[in-house]
Specification:
The protein has 546 residues and is mostly helical. 79% of the residues lie in helices and 0% in strands. The protein contains 22 helices and no strands. The longest helix is centred in the C-terminal third of the chain and has 115 residues. The relative contact order is 0.04.
Amino acid sequence: MAFVTNYYMRIFLRVIFTLFLAYPMLSVAGTDSLLNVLKKEISRKDIYEDEKQARIQSLKKLQHKLSKTDYTSQYDVSLKLYDEYKSYQYDSAYVYVNKLKNLSVGMNDMSRAYYSQIKLGFILLSSGMFKETFDCMSRVNPKLLNDSMKVEYYFIMYRCNSDLAKYNSDKYFTPDYIRRGNEYIDSAIKLSEPGSIDQIYYSGLKHVAANDNISGSEELNKLITPNAPISMHLRAMITCSLGQIYISSNRQEDGINLLIQSAIADIKSSTKETVALFTLAEQLYKNGNIKDAYNFIQLAKADADYYGARQRKIQIGAILPLVAAEELNHSEKEKQTILMYLLAITGLASLVILFLIMIYKQLGKLKHKEKIIEDKNIQLKDINYKLVEDAHIKEEYIGQFFKIISGYILKLEKLKMSVDTKLSIKKYDDIRLIINNINIKKEREILYHSFDHIFLKIFPNFISVFNSLFEEKDQIWPQEHEVLNTDLRIFALIRMGINDNETIAKILEYSVNTIYVYKMRIKAKSINPDQFEQRIMDIKAVDSIA
């Protein structure tokens, strides 16, 4: 029982250990996946900006069509144009704020004039001009604003004080800015409709300002559910705030993932006055992802320059040299690493080439030896063929030889018995008659006839192949009563391996000179005299030999 318990305990610990190791890997994998999405959205940045420019141009055309004296419609369209520009381009937003102010004066509507002043305060704050923001907002009389305008006024004042507190970070002045900021956010919350997006958002910011990150994140998370009815720009702001909360709470991976989501939302909404991309670059730099940090902070700088955000440019300028220097070092290390890899690859390639050369040489030697072996095999095959052919020839001729010799022995035995009988009875004239009856010429013809038949039995194609070596007019064919004639018989003996003219002369009862003349005359008539004798020797025996 104890063994079983220990066994399952070991399995449990292994699973826990595997999950412990896998969790960071899964988190990193998730971050990498989100970074890839961000990079893809960055590549589509121009598309989103084209869409924004299309909306702006559409509004401008609409405004151009409106009557100059239709102040209300002009004000509404200018307000929409301001909204398009307020986080996109400071100069253009400033132009339309002034239009809003002028139209308010033309309408003699002080609440709208003060509201236009609030809009001016927002872009001044976004541009990093704190003094100008306070001066602008000091000219606003909140008593003449409706509740929604007052909420926006209090929120701008909250942001102005809280941002200045973060910027100064001074133990003497910062607490006062924080206190005033809290008073303004409390006023904004009181005037917001209960359960509204503004009320939840401001409550979350208040908790965060009070260092209650848990309550703050709970409130803010309510607004970023997939179906939450908020703008892309507000989604970017909330996820950015949550990302900063998580990072300060040591939830590094979650915080970075939220900053990535915020940067994606900023790109989709074509927001240039943004904190997310800069903050993300800063965190990636701290985590050692120098390449992405450098690319993102460059993009954040370009956005800040485009908008005209002075404060953001100062923040970026403080960290950009560090990231750039690290990126340069990283690039140099990568170059050195690549150089080392190239050298290693070059070395390996050199070794591979050396081995290939050696292998090529060995293959050449092997092919040469294989060629020698192949040639030897061909020679052996030819030798084997000749040996088989010679054995077959000898077999045929030895059998015929014994047959002929046996016949001659029988004839000699009969002759001896006949002579002995004639001698015993002293009939000497009969002995002479017996001797005279022996026909040597006929016996030789019988010998030639036997030779011819045995030869053609072994070489049935000899006559046709032999004649293929001549022009038709010079071909040699035996007569109807002949098997082989003298010309063919000479070269039949040569094919049998009898090359000596003297031996051929004795067999055929010709002089040596006659045999020589026969051979030269016939050879001279052949199509290729130089190879004539070799072609004769190449005539094959019957197929069964092969």
